Amino acid sequence: ADGKVYRLKMAETWNANFPIFGDAPREMARLAEEMSDGRLKITIDSANKHKAPFGVFDMVRSGQYDLGHSASYYWKGKVPNTLYFTTMPFGMTTPEQYGWFYYGGGQALSDKVYSKFGLRSFPGGNTGNQMGGWFQKEINSVEDLKGLKMRIPGFAGEVMAKLGAKPTNIPSGELFTALERRTIDALEWVGPSLDLRMGFHKIAPYYYTGWHEPATELQFLVNERTWKKLPDDLRTILRTSMKLSSYDMYIQSYHESAENWAKMKQEFPNIEVKSFPSSVMKAMYDANESLLAEKAAEDPLAKEILDSQAQYMQKVRVWTNISDRAYLDSLDNLAD
Amino acid sequence: MIGIIMFFVALGMLLFGFPVAFTFGGVALIFGVFAEGWDMFAFMPFRIQSYMENTVMMAVPLFIFMGIVLQKTHLAEQLLEAMGKLFGSVRGGLAISTILVGALLAASTGVVGASVVAMGLISLPVMMKYKYSKSLACGTICASGTLGQIIPPSIILIILGDVLGIPVGDLFHAALGPGFILIACYIIFIVIVTWLKPEMAPAIPYDESLGTRSQQIRDALKAIVPPLALVLIVLGSIFSGIATPTESSALGGVGAVFLALIYRQFSWKMVYDSALETVKVTAMVFAILMGATAFSMAFSYTGGDYIVEEVLLSLPGEKWGFIILSMLAIMILGFFIDFVEIAFIIVPILAPVAEALGINMVWFAILIAMNLQTSFLTPPFGFSLFYLKGVAPSSVRTMDIYRGVIPFILIQVLVLVSILIMPEFYGMD
Amino acid sequence: MFLVQFEKTLGRYSLLLGKISALLLILLLINVFYDVLMRYAFNDVSIGMQELEWHLYSAIFLLGIPFGLQTGGHVRVDLFYERLSIRNKAWIDLIGTLIFLMPFTLLVGWYGIDFAKEAYELGETSGDPGGLPARWIIKSVIPVAFFSMAVSGVGMILRCVNAIRGTSEKGFDEQSPQH
Ligand code: NA
Ligand code: NA
C-alpha cells in the first residue's frame, strides 16, 4: 500500500452531537483512521453546518461530499425504490433484516437501485424496533383510527391513511405544543432511546408498541468515484468500519432503550403502554399488503425487492419463532 | 483565521451603506471563492431550500400582513392611542403599551423578524406622531419585538431543549419568570426615563373637546377591544389546539381583514396593497437571511467553526469561572454568528462541562437563551436592528436605533445577572 | 435616453414579480386558514394542502427579493451613506452592485439551475402520503429568483450610471423606503 493520505468529507442528516444516530458515523471515522494508520481521514459535517439534512443524497451524488450518513427511506420522493432498504411495516426484525441484506441478496438489490445514481449504500446502524407512538386517546378498534390526526411521515403514513387516519405535517419544533394542545392526536418518533428528550411522556398518556418500523436501518452513502479511487486495502477498511460501527449502533440503541425505558417507568409510572388490538393490527397489515402490491405492480425492480424480502422473511421467521420466540415464551411459562 | 478577517471586512463594507443582504453575500462570495473555490456556492440552493421548508418562518409574512392591515385600517393606531390615553397623564404611555402588545405578540410566535417588523409597522408611526424620542421609540420596539425569543413558544428554547436533552415543556415553564421580569424591567425603565426626561415620551394630551374623562376612557376601551380580540384569537387558537403557533399567524391575518370589514375599512384594494407591502418587507427580512446564510457558510467552511471550538475548549473547569467565561464567550460570539449556530456548535461543547460541574441544566439553558436574545439587539449585526430599519421611515437613522437599544441591552444583562446570582428567585435552584 | 427607457422596462419586470408575490400571499392566507378550518372543524387533513403552504410562502419571499431591490426596499447601514451626495451614493451602489450583488446572485442562480434540473430528471415528489408531485417547480423558483435579482441589479447599474452622468436622479431622489 502507498502512504498516500485520503481525506474524505462526510455529510450527516443529523445535527451536531445528536446522540446514537450521530455516534455511528463518528465511530466509523475513528475506526477507519486508526485501522488505516491515518491514511483515511474522514471529517464529518452535521446538518447545522451544511443546512441540508435531506440534501445528503444529492450532495454525495454530485461529489460535494464523498460520504453521507442518513436513511434510505428519506429518498423515496426522489427514487421510490430506496424505500425498501430502511425498514418496512410488518417487515423483518433487525437480525432477520441483516440476514437478508448481507446473505440473502439485499446488498445486490441495493446496488442495483443506487448504482444508477453513482452511489453505493451500506448499512449505517439500526435503531431496533421503534415504538408505535404517543397517543392522546386509546385505539380500541379500526373505527378509532378514522380521523385520527397523527404525525406519521412516509410510507407508514400511507398505510394509516388507507384506514382513514389523517397523517399531518407538523414542524418538529412545534410537535410538543401540537400534541400537548391536541392540535394532533398522536405522533410517532423513535423509541425510548430518543423520545424522552422530546418530553412527549409528560403530555400523552398512551405509548403504543411498534408495527411500522421494526428494524430501522440508517445508511452510509458512498460516492462511486470516491469508492473507485480508494486502494483495495482502504476500501476493505472503510467497509469494515461501516459494518462494525453499524453493529455498534444497534447495540447502543438497544442499551439506551432499555435504560430509558427503566427511567421512564420509574419517573412516570402512569404511562400506559399498549399494543394495538389484533383487529387493528390485521387491518393495518391488510392495508400494508395492498399498498405493497400496488408498488410491485408499478415497477419490476420494486417487485423484485419485495419478493426477495418476502421470501427471505418467510424462511427466517420460522427460525426466529423456534429460537427467540420459543425461548421467551417458555420463560413466560416459567413465571406462572 | 479567514473567518475572523472576513467578519471585519464585512463590518467595514457595511459602513459604505450598500444593502446589508448583498454586502454579506458578496463578501462571503469573495472570501469563500478565494479560500475554497467556486464549488462552495453549490451548497447555496440547499441552504436556501432549508429556509423554504422551514414552515415556522411562514409566520414572518403572515404576521407582517396582520401588522400592515392593522396599520392601514388605523386599528392599531387607535389601540395604542387608546391605551396611551388610558394611562392618562402617565408619560411614556405609548411606549408601555408597545411593550405590552409586544409581549402578547411574543407569546404567539418565536420568530423575531415577524414581531419586530409587525411592531415597527404598528407602533413606530404612532410614537413618532406623538413626538417620542426616535431612539427611545426604536429601542422599545426592538426590545419588545425580541421578547419572542424568551417568552414561549420560542425557537431558541426549542433548539436548546433538543441540544441539551431537556424536555421543551420544562424550558418553556422556566422561561416564564425571566420573561415577566424582563417585561416589568422594560416598563420600569420607561417610567424612570420619562420621569427624568419628560420630552422623550410625552403623554398624549388630554383633550377637553373629546368629552369628559370617563367618556374618553369609554372610547378608549372601545378602541382596545377589536385588536385585543385579535390578539386573543391568535393566542387562544394556540392554547385551545385549534392551530399551531405558525398557523395562528394566518388566523391573525385573516382576523385583521375581518376586523377591517366590521369597521368598514375593507376594500379589495386595501387587501392587495397590504399584500404588496408585506411582500416588500418580507423580502427585506429574507434577503438578509439569504446573505447571512452565505456568510455563515463561508465562515464555517473556511474553518471558523474550529477556531471557535478551540477557544471554548480552553475555558476553566471550575463552576463560576466556567459560567462567567462561557456567558461572555456566547455574548461575544453573538456578534459574529447567528443563534442557531451557537446553539448547535457551542452549546454542545459547554454542556458536558456544565453537567460535570453539577450545574442545573434548565438554569444553564435559560441563561444561554437570555444571552442569545441579547445578540439580536447588539449593534452592528443584531438582526432586530436591521429589521426595524427596514420598516422605519427615512427620518429614522441607523444611529437612532443603535442608541435606542443600548439601555435595553443593559437591562437584559442585568436580568441575566440576576438569574445568574439568584436562581432560586426564578425557581431554578 | 435609451438607458432610461431600458431601466424602465427592467423595472416593470420586477414590479410584475412583486404583484405575483402579493397574489400568492393572499392565496397563502386562504390556504392556511382553510387547512386550520378543515382540521379543526371537519377533522380532515390534506398533506398536499399543507405542503402547498410552504410552496407559496417560499415563492413569496424569493420572488419578492428582486421586487424589493427595484423599489429600494433593502436595508442599508446609513451612518455615512445618508450624508453623501447623490453622485457619491450612485458610485457606491454602482461598485457594490458590480462586485457584490451581480456575482453573488449570478453564481447562486447558476448553481440553482442544476439543483432544479436534478429534481426534474429524478421526477422528485414529496415522500409523504398525499404530498405534492413535481418538486422541480418550486425548486426552479430559486434560479428564477436569483437571475431576477441580477436583472434588478442591471436596473440598479443603469440608475447609477444615469445619476453619475446626470441624466436622471431616479432612485436617488428619495432615501430609504416610506411606509
Ligand atoms: Na420513527
Ligand atoms: Na415567543
Automatic annotation (TrEMBL), chain B:
List, alphabetically, the InterPro entries matched: DctM, TRAP_DctM
Tree of life domain: Bacteria
Entry keywords, A to Z: Cell inner membrane, Cell membrane, Membrane, Transmembrane, Transmembrane helix, Transport
Chief place of localization: membrane
Q: Which Pfam families match?
A: DctM (PF06808)
- For this protein, the parts annotated as crossing the membrane are 6-34, 55-74, 94-124, 136-160, 172-196, 223-243, 249-266, 278-300, 320-350, 362-381, 401-422
Q: Does the keyword Protein transport apply?
A: no
Entry's family note:
Belongs to the TRAP transporter large permease family.
State what protein this is by name.
Answer: TRAP transporter large permease protein
Q: Which organism is it from?
A: Marinomonas gallaica
Gene that this sequence comes from:
siaT_2
TrEMBL record, chain C:
PANTHER family in UniProt? 2,3-DIKETO-L-GULONATE TRAP TRANSPORTER SMALL PERMEASE PROTEIN YIAM, SLL1102 PROTEIN
Transmembrane region(s): 12-34, 54-69, 90-113, 136-158
Q: What does this protein do?
A: Part of the tripartite ATP-independent periplasmic (TRAP) transport system.
Q: What InterPro entries does the record point to?
A: DctQ, TRAP_DctQ
Q: Does the keyword Signal apply?
A: no
Keywords linked to the UniProt accession: Cell inner membrane, Cell membrane, Membrane, Transmembrane, Transmembrane helix, Transport
What is the protein name stated in its UniProt record?
Answer: TRAP transporter small permease protein
Family matches, as Pfam families? DctQ
| MF (Gene Ontology) | transmembrane transporter activity
* Compartments where located: Cell inner membrane
**Keyword Nucleus applies:** no
Q: Which family does it belong to?
A: Belongs to the TRAP transporter small permease family.
For this record, the Gene Ontology CC terms, alphabetical, are: plasma membrane
Signal peptide start-end: none
How is this protein situated with respect to the membrane? Multi-pass membrane protein
Main localization (coarse): membrane
Q: Where is the Tripartite ATP-independent periplasmic transporters DctQ component domain?
A: 30-161
Q: Which organism is it from?
A: Marinomonas gallaica
